[in-house]
Amino acid sequence: MDPSAAYRLIRGMKTLEIRVHRQCESALAVARFLERHPKVERVHYPGLPSHPDHALARRQMHGGFGGMLSFDVKGGIAAARHFCDRVRIFLLAVSLGGVESLVALPAYTSHYRMSPAELRAAGVAPGCVRVSVGIEGPADLIEDLRQALA
Question: Which listed site, 59, 119, 128, 137, has its alpha carbon 20 to 30 Å from 77?
Fold first, then answer.
């Protein structure tokens, strides 16, 4: 590794714990908001008691449930596309995320080669949106989600 890359790696490692803690807290707040929203059919996040593997996640995931979640927008792929077109803070990007919050549509990205039957078998609804929560303030993220779902 070149010296510049090594320096950036060491510098980033110093704040990794703080960033991951913030992402986990914000992701849980976002998941709780989405679970109560009338335009959301289902939220997939192990930090929610409604998740089928919540008890297992509580035993295994000490310190947080991660910064990624997904949710199914009522209205299918058209509603999910409309949502993604309306977000302002979240970026529409194919990535697992970083310090900025991202949204992606698995039907067009990670699962694009799957047929509708294969998507159903994999548990990916047509209106599924994948969210990678960054380190922005949770209240700002929730407000962005609220306005995009309106």
Answer: 137
